[in-house]
Design goal:
Two copies of one chain form a homodimer.
Chain A: E1 14-18, H1 22-30, E2 37-42, E3 46-48, H2 53-57, E4 67-69, H3 70-73, E5 80-84, E6 87-91, E7 96-99, E8 102-105, E9 108-111, E10 115-117, H4 123-128, H5 135-153, H6 158-165, E11 166-170, H7 174-194, E12 204-208, H8 220-232, E13 235-238, E14 243-246, E15 250-253, E16 258-260, E17 263-266, E18 270-272, E19 283-284, E20 288-291, E21 303-305, E22 310-312, H9 325-343, E23 358-363, E24 366-371, E25 374-377, H10 379-392, H11 396-412, H12 430-434
Parallel strand pairs in A: 1-2, 1-9, 2-5, 9-21, 11-12, 11-17, 12-13, 20-22
Antiparallel strand pairs in A: 3-4, 6-7, 7-8, 10-18, 14-15, 15-16, 19-20, 23-24, 24-25
Helix pairs in contact in A: 1-9, 5-6
Chain lengths: ~425, ~425
């Protein structure tokens, strides 16, 4: 606090929000005009629209069009301040947080830190596979894919050449399915023309999923529909199969199948991201923190957690709610009301998730949508998917740019952003670790 | 050549082009349908539209919209092959070049490698100032500016705080003028709203130029007009002044003035970029290589140089032509014809530069244009500048995206891309050096 020129609005209770994701943003917006003093901290100076990261990774969109400056979102909101910082420790006894730019006191603390890739303890998988939870990670993935294609042209050893052209996606959730489909389209429409000297049939795409179906939480129809779409597009879908080991070249599956590959995307699991300071016994599986029906962290009255990092076992979800944007946003909106109720000494309202449906896109004219008991798929589902995602983007400029790119790609079968802006270098690892 | 699957068109003479800038692209395009086998090498897989790098650095444009995949430019050109590689050495005796991905033989070699920042031997300036010749460098600059602004908010020491808010641009050529103007507009229209807790008047912008005027090669009217525009916008223009030393914090000028600053952009000089293998005595000042009126490198009949890296002293330009895109493009176009003449044993045609004029933009509605003896400035000049730059961009998608961004910025007074995608870290220096 010493070096900081921060001047919170006098006398208003200090609400400190860690994280500018879907939950933190909704909470902050809903607290506009309220008599609180908000401080938001994030390690990035922008909000990331995670559902479209796979399009950045596969050259369909610029990184800048799915990110939005956090300061800009709350421009003119008088009770809001932002600090671009890493939060290191929460000190509940002193009601402060320790960050990379100093200490900040709170009256109410909201942890909205989201989730990161979960390698289930495997150092090899963490080191050798590519995650895709942030914009820098997506750009690394884009660079790696394009670099390996370039390298395949000058590689004579057949095993190494095959490894450069085999793509394995571990995890058949929405991210894995969308990524597999997107690489299949890149192969069909772009790479064939870009690399005339490459036999495009030597490029293989595998989607590996441990459970008996892709898109776990969706309807049976969507699961089967997505699998069919993927197979039509030339993706090899391996169900009931897990990655057993990977050393950067040889990937071994639980079926004992071996794949030589230099391109492994890890989307097989996530875990909550959390600063130090909350005792270990407050956490459940997947690094999520136990919260009650008001999103209060177990054992505290002034610390809350919302979104991916929170595990609420009331409300009919024994293992916590799904890690999706609508949950985080609905929890953020309710928490803004509950914080005001708390200040007014009124009783709190418990959280009740309103599931509006789920969807995934596999490729051009190919998507699956579940809304309640209703299922549909194909071209109409694809347009619904695009409309919903376009409208969910923060900022009009971003919506226009994304729309222009989509329309362009639809008619030209092209992807505009297949540039290796920053070469990816696994050996130095700086790219991978510097950007968290 | 051993590992490479390269199969050049049988029997056609091998034309190897190093560099996919304005010159290399024009040459390759003009050789379409000719009976030559072209191999282009570039360390990036994309062409960079350098005149708009300053807009990437100041958050006005996405990097992807001013870059274009090289493979895509020549899609379908049967006599073209591309390799993404660094060229290390030219071996004229064996008629091969040695690259990071192997050796390639040539019948005719064209060096179109362009220019890089020139620090005139100062290691300090090279280490502590920021260059802006490539897309990664522009993104570093953007990150640094935004990081220093964030840091200034939590900095209490007044000297350090001032250093974070002082911006010095060394060199008053087009790049320096455009950058100074762009930061001034960022200050006025964006930062004031983004950082309500910052006293925006403490942010100072200096443009330092060694000669008696900015925009050296332009008309007196343009020089004075640009200076007036800059001063109107709050930029301190220091003429007849050079940077004497800079240690990362204290900048000393030739007038003995000292400025504490952490933001120094270096645009005070360029030098030719050249692989090893051409003898030292073939070079002139600024690292350019001597060429004759046919762009043949002095002493060779099969090695050519075009664009920034070439110094042609015929054609009325004693110190070589100006380092601008039209020179490179005109030389590329003529060389394509001369190569065919050479193959047909016809006499070559000497190069004659057709100067179509020059222009620079300072800010919204503020530009200067010289066409022959005609000078105009202001809003019409600004629209001319925009039109010419838009039309010069490679690719329709890029033009649409840039236009959308410009229209958006014009009406909203906003910049869409003020994101710190990759934090800049001078200490590790990986970001600065890895991307060359």
């Amino acid at each position: 606090m010493d070096k900081d020129t921060l001047k919170p609005s006098v006398n208003f209770p200090k609400v400190v929000i860690i994280g500018g994701g879907f939950g933190g943003i909704q909470l902050t917006k809903s607290l506009k005009h309220k008599e609180v003093s908000i401080l938001m901290l994030d390690r990035h100076n922008y909000h990331t629209f995670q559902p479209l990261l796979y399009q950045v990774a596969t050259g369909g969109l610029e990184a800048d069009s799915i990110a939005f400056p956090l300061r800009k979102i709350f421009k003119g909101q008088k009770n809001f301040l932002f600090r671009n910082a890493d939060v290191e420790t929460i000190v509940p006894e002193r009601k402060v947080i320790v960050t990379s730019v100093g200490e900040y006191a709170y009256d109410y603390l909201v942890i909205a830190t989201g989730s990161d890739s979960n390698y289930f303890g495997s150092k090899d998988l963490e080191h050798f596979t590519m995650p895709m939870k942030t914009i820098p990670e997506s750009l690394n993935l884009r660079s790696m894919i394009l670099q390996n294609l370039e390298e395949s042209l000058v590689e004579k050893d057949p095993t190494n050449k095959a490894a450069l052209l085999n793509f394995v996606i571990a995890g058949g959730g929405p991210t894995g399915v969308e990524m597999a489909g997107s690489i299949a389209e890149l192969k069909k429409h772009v790479l064939k023309k870009d690399y005339p000297e490459l036999d495009i049939n030597t490029l293989n795409i595998y989607l590996v999923e441990g459970s008996p179906e892709v898109l776990g939480p969706m309807s049976k129809k969507s699961q089967l529909g997505a699998k069919e779409f993927l197979e039509e597009m030339g993706v090899t879908v391996l169900l009931n199969t897990r990655v057993t080991s990977y050393d950067g070249e040889k990937l071994v599956l639980s079926t004992n199948q071996e794949i030589y590959t230099k391109n492994v995307l890890w989307s097989a699991g996530v875990r909550g991201v959390m600063p130090d300071g909350i005792p270990m016994d407050k956490f459940v599986r997947g690094g999520r923190v136990k919260v009650d029906e008001y999103n209060r962290v177990d054992g505290y009255t002034d610390i809350f957690a919302i979104g991916d990092v929170a595990a609420m076992s009331t409300d009919g979800y024994q293992n916590g709610h799904p890690g999706v944007a609508p949950v985080a946003m609905q929890q953020g909106r309710l928490l803004s009301k509950n914080l005001i109720r708390l200040l007014n000494k009124e009783p709190l309202v418990p959280f009740k998730y309103k599931d509006k449906g789920s969807m995934a896109t596999i490729g051009r004219n190919k998507a699956v949508v579940d809304i309640g008991k209703i299922h549909f798929q194909g071209i109409f589902a694809w347009f619904v998917w695009m409309f919903v995602h376009l409208m969910s983007l923060v900022g009009y400029r971003n919506r226009i740019i994304v729309l222009v790119n989509w329309v362009w790609s639809y008619f030209s079968y092209d992807r505009g952003s297949r540039l290796i802006i920053r070469p990816f270098n696994r050996e130095s690892m700086t790219e991978k670790t510097d950007n968290k």
